[in-house]
Amino acid sequence: MHGYILLVGESTGLHLSDAGQTLVLRPRCDDSCVWEWAGDALLRNASTGREVAAEPSGAPMSASEADKIDAAFGPGASRMVPRKYEVGSDAAELPGERVFFAREAPLRLPSAYLAELESQGWTVVENVMSEAMVSNLVANITKVREDNAEKEARVKALQDERPYRSNDNVIRPRALMREGESFLGMTPAVAQALMHPISLWLIESYLGVDSIHYCQCPGFSILRPAEKTGEFAEVMPGGWHSDYPYPLTSEVEAHTSALGPEEFEKLDASISARYPDWKQRTSRLGMQFNIALTDFTPETGATQFVLGSHEFDGPPPTELNAVPTVAGEGPFKDVVQVSFPAGSGILYDSRTYHRAPPELNVSGAERWAMLTCIVPSFVRDLRARDDKVESADAFAGASRVHAALTPRELRDVVKMLCDDEAGEPRQDVEAAVLAASANGDA
Ligand SMILES: O=C(O)CCC(=O)C(=O)O
Fold first, then answer.
1. pTM of the entire structure?
2. What is the domain count for the chain?
């Protein structure tokens, strides 16, 4: 197995890249930013073969430092901090930054994932979250659930008295939380996952833009085990859809339909000037990136897809939602599930037909995921429907999380998750982040 790593500059958060003649620092990672160990104290660029010396930098974290980080961000947070290395003896070649965090990278070079996206409209990117990030995030979510156990029990009791329906039998921890709370402001793991420099490079490259933002603050979705019996074990038709900003189904044009026509007019206005026929699904305008916090397999109820349907002329047709889904049969002959382990994410073109299958989680355990949606910055986001604005407010006050992120991650969080109606970074959040770093808050 490869042990690819990214080298993240200690002071800038930018990534060491071999640009051919020189080493440079980059905010996003293509193949030139991927390294692997070639010896005890030697790193080799996986794309160009250039080698640089690398020695461990600084003392290992002390027990009291680890305790402080765990107390701030929850169990195991200190394990999320990667080791640091001083890179290269040829100082003239290095662009200012000498000490780098070694962050585990996906299993293949970024160009391999992009080639898959281009040819098939989807790919699975591994190691978006390390095992430590996943377990810390799970611990934070578990705490919220424990603190709101009665509320969750009420949600479950209602679900238990109805048949299986796609998007039901799901616990959404966000809905259990108090106003003003956000996982984005609780642990750096969320921002670090969402601002992964290879994922962002893939998304920008596939969409053909240099400015993107998240449609909403990520939703966490916990698919309960399928344990219903009797009349409630029935599976209702439905659930097939395409994602934002495209028409949901052939019957429902707007993802924002619950908010009334004005919201859809705003979305349309943000896109139509550039892409007048965008509702015909002719242009690349959105991607979904769903990161597994537990393994996705057919037995755990991994998402059902009609892969390649991003190239179909229209949204999911009526016949897909008319009868219960049975993969391999009738209108569902091409329905498949994609397996991938916790910490990996499936990145797909938002036009792809897909459905959450609560009836298929026969594993006896919950299936956890972080669901995210990304569009070019000019496309209006889902702020009116989801909690993006509230999460940005919570993030503005989360100075300890700011201090745990790199400057590059912080800039991208403010740009992509804390932006205003026009898709520009919110000045009040920028000011709060700057004030926290000036105060040295940690
Ligand atoms: O939870 C799932 O399996 C599917 C999620 C989904 O429908 C979506 O991300 O749009």
1. 0.96
2. 2
